[in-house]
Amino acid sequence: MALYLYLFISLIGFSFSVAWRNFEYCEGTSWINFKENCYLFETKSHKRISFYDAEDYCRSQGAHLLSIHSEEENDFVLNTMSKGRFGDRHWIGLNVLAGDDKPQWSDDSPVDFQKRVPKDFFVNEKCFIIFLEKRGWRPEHCALHYAPICKRPADVTPTPVPPPTTVPPPQGNCPENWIQFDQKCYKYFGAKEEDRVQYKQARDACWALGKNHDLVSIHSIEEQAFLTQNLYKLGTSAWIGMRQVTSDEIGHDLVFGWIDNSRTDFKYWAAGHPPPGTWKYCARLSYETVAKGEWIADYCEISKYGYICQQPSDPNVPPPKPESSKCDAGSLSYRDSCYRYVLKPSTHEEAEKSCQNFGGHLASVVDGFEQAFLFNLLGSYSLSRDQFRFLWNGLKGVQV
Known about the structure:
The protein is about 25% helix and about 20% strand. The protein is α+β, with helices and mostly antiparallel strands. The protein has three domains: about 120 residues, Mannose-Binding Protein A, Chain A (Roll), CATH 3.10.100; about 130 residues, Mannose-Binding Protein A, Chain A (Roll), CATH 3.10.100; about 70 residues, no CATH class. The strands form four sheets. Strands 1, 2, 3, 4, 5, 6, 7 and 8 form an eight-stranded mixed β-sheet that branches. Strands 9, 10, 11, 12, 13, 14, 15 and 16 form an eight-stranded mixed β-sheet that branches. Strands 17-18 form a two-stranded antiparallel sheet. A hairpin with a 2-residue loop joins strand 9 and strand 10. Helix 5 crosses helix 7. It is elongated, with a radius of gyration of 27 Å.
């Protein structure tokens, strides 16, 4: 009898201990307990953000975007949403952002349960929301703005989750007639007027080139400068992957995002762009005199321009053969000129004489294409901040 009484008390104690841990770590905030996890339902009016920002927000709370692993858990989430103050659409952690396009949860848990619902219109949308009206999940563009649902275990003290480790792409090379910057390959189309097309035709043409081909997405000022310095060859503006993305939700924010669903972590809009309004806009790299390389929001279904496709570099492609150059060793060729950076403190007069000794002059910057080339040329030297700030050019000494 004593043995049975001891086991009974022990089991009650264990059950009480688990319940107390859940209560302690979920109660007292906005977190809601269900079984062994805590859930944070952000309200529609409080936090509407992109999928990437939603995952970052959940990580700051010691959690991840919601992963769902059973019908019972899915029903709990939907029933909580139906209480009225949370909104009827929320980001969950399901996405197909991996290179193989297989579904994955942002918390790396197994995809062992799915509740996808059909969508009338689906083009390259790689992040998922849970949708109360359909009582299931459906894909949306990752740049759209919805409130997140976060989830964390109930039996651990919540601490911020570090950002995921970024694995650099394998070193590779580009196919013939493509140009390379870091580990991406680019090709410009539309040098002939008859090859200039509307945005959708440009997108489809890039997709038709093969898997992992798309209109270009830009993620740094260096990549922006590289694409700008090569735009002169096209003779016209070029469509890029930035476009207005839409939701069928009434009153949804006006949002622009990359067609490949990559993170919008860099912008280079020209002044006044994108303009407000209800037109469907897509972005082009500007060829115009004043704003070379800046992004212009233009009419996707009316305007015709060239376009830039991208693909990852390929480790199986052999390195390109060295190109012959008309420039001396230590100098780089761009358009019809040779350029050399001299790391030697000099007066303006001394710098000009040094350039004359090389058979040239201090650089004159004639347009935005050349400016972009010089920006990346100087960046390739890994200059310190002070070295980069004071440079002579052919006009005068300037502080940049």
